[in-house]
Design a protein that fits this description.
Organism: Carpinus fangiana
Helix content: 40-55%
Domain Stomatal closure-related actin-binding protein coiled-coil: 100-267
Protein name: Stomatal closure-related actin-binding protein PH domain-containing protein
Number of strands: 17
Coiled coil: 159-208
CATH architecture of the domain at 83-208: Up-down Bundle
Strand content: 15-25%
Radius of gyration: 37 Å
Largest sheet: 8 strands, antiparallel
Domain Stomatal closure-related actin-binding protein Ig: 281-378
Length: 494
């Protein structure tokens, strides 16, 4: 006979656990109706009076089996009972999905456990053992759900504690700076008062004995010079010490801020994993410029990526309209300068089902890249050592070193004294990061000098690749040209 628990073996641990109960009051003896709307949203619909409840279907099938058990064979009886169980399981699944929009996770598990308990009383033999095994698996899932919620609550508490610590550290640093500043001001005022007293005494002594007090005058002048020397030595040292302390405090606050941001991203990632524990794929990689992201299967039931349709998008961090990244249809994608400050999204379509993966947060900029590009902008022509891997869509056989010249008016690609391409900035020119290509995608870019003449160029490092893209777009913008990739419409903001 058909096993009731055939759908639970892949997602639950088969071990006996203590029963988990929830104080829930149910207004109805069956699940509500539902349907899947736009964007995979669950929408409740009115019940169809023509559809029988699970209880009525099972009762009708049981009565028919009791009437026919005297004249049916064991095989026919087993087939009939199997069809009854299949119908009950189907109705139970539809009812469970209809009520998923209005019930919490623990309530869903409680209802599923009650349905299995109700079914347990109607079956016997091997099916009863299967139902009991399914009940134990539901209880195990409830325990795992409770543990995951506890871990999330603990991580939230740790992040809150870290935020309070950073706030207290900032207040302590501010208080320390104020105290040092007040102390320095007091010392300076004290020195100024001493100088004023010496000058007053000097003037009085000069009036009293102009002719006979030359020796005393010299001594007073020495005291004045010494006092002034103390002021000149004292004030800069205090300011320097304060500046050093402020720099150290800024560095500490920056490190703590980066650590807090990393913890928040990890918390968001763990929360997303906990909410989508049945996800077939996941994004792997550092969400920053200069790195790359890879789609990896997270379940044994995940289909092969080579048989799936993949498309990458960039979405504004405020939840605005998403933009399709033309040509980004591979499992690997390397962020480019246009993606900084935006969330990346990958849609995977397999057998008519769509799975959406998003980054935990916006793409972070590369450290020091902005100042490096600003230093290069001052030059009239910047040279990069590159290797040409493709020309006009065909693999380029030679692996010799080429030189890419990014100038204020044009871009030129040379090999020794031979010029492969030289074009002024125009609307037909395209320049963007390679959208695919494996682990080396973060070091390569796509350049279409003109229509029908394109190159795929690899740089020595990710920093030079991103700097070349930003520099070329900066020079093209100065020439009133928006230089971007195929079908890109993002504004020049990087």
């Amino acid at each position: 006979m058909t096993r009731v628990t055939r759908d639970f073996g892949d997602t639950m641990q088969k071990e006996a656990v203590p029963a988990v109960s929830a104080d829930v009051i149910f207004n109805s003896s069956r699940f509500p109706n539902y349907k899947i709307g736009a964007n995979n949203q669950i929408v409740e619909v009115k019940d169809d009076p023509k559809v029988l409840s699970m209880k009525e279907v099972v009762a009708r099938e049981t009565a028919q089996l009791l009437e026919q058990q005297k004249r049916l064979s064991v095989r026919d009886l087993a087939s009939k009972f199997e069809r009854g169980l299949a119908a009950a399981a189907k109705l139970s699944e539809e009812a469970r999905l209809r009520e998923a929009a209005s019930l919490e996770k623990h309530v869903l598990l409680k209802k599923l456990r009650d349905a299995l308990e109700s079914l347990k009383g109607r079956v016997a033999g091997r099916n009863k053992d299967d139902v009991e095994e399914a009940i134990s698996m539901v209880e195990a899932l409830a325990v795992q759900l409770t543990q995951r919620e506890g871990e999330l609550i603990q991580e939230k508490a740790e992040v809150k504690k870290l935020a309070n610590f950073l706030k207290q550290a900032s207040e302590d640093a501010k208080r320390l700076v104020d105290e040092e500043r007040a102390f320095a001001r007091a010392e300076i005022e004290h020195a100024r008062a001493a100088v004023q007293r010496v000058e007053d005494a000097l003037q009085e002594e000069d009036r009293m004995s102009r002719g006979s007090g030359k020796q005393d005058l010299e001594e007073l002048m020495k005291e004045v010079q010494e006092a002034r020397r103390i002021i000149m030595l004292h004030q800069p040292s205090k300011v320097m010490d304060m500046e050093l302390e402020l720099r150290a405090l800024r560095a500490q606050l920056m490190e703590k801020s980066k650590h807090s941001l990393r913890l928040q991203k990890e918390l968001a990632k763990s929360k997303r994993v906990a909410e989508n524990n049945s996800q077939l794929f996941e994004l792997d990689g550092h969400e920053a410029l200069g790195s790359y992201l890879r789609i990896q299967p997270s379940s044994d039931n995940a289909p092969e990526l080579s048989k799936c349709l993949i498309q990458w998008y960039r979405v504004s961090s405020e939840g605005g309209k998403k933009e399709l990244i033309s040509g980004a249809t591979k499992s690997v994608y390397a962020p480019e300068p246009f993606d900084v400050g935006r969330i990346l999204q990958a849609d995977i379509v397999s057998e008519g089902h769509q799975i959406t993966l998003t980054t935990a947060g916006p793409v972070d900029p590369a450290a020091g890249l902005g100042s490096y590009v600003e230093a290069l902008v001052r030059k009239h022509d910047v040279e990069f050592k590159v290797v040409v891997t493709q020309m006009n869509g065909v693999n380029y056989a030679s692996e010799s070193i080429h030189v890419l010249h990014v100038g204020k008016m044009r871009i030129k690609l040379c090999k020794g004294k031979t010029t492969l391409a030289k074009e002024y900035y125009s609307t037909l020119m395209q320049l963007c990061g390679v959208r695919g290509g494996g682990n080396a995608a973060a070091q390569a870019l796509f350049w279409q000098a003109k229509k029908g003449h394109s190159f795929v160029i690899a740089f020595e490092s990710e920093r030079e690749r991103n700097a070349a893209i930003m520099l070329a777009r900066r020079f093209a913008f100065d020439c009133n040209i928006m230089l971007a990739g195929p079908d890109d419409r993002a504004p020049l903001g990087t």
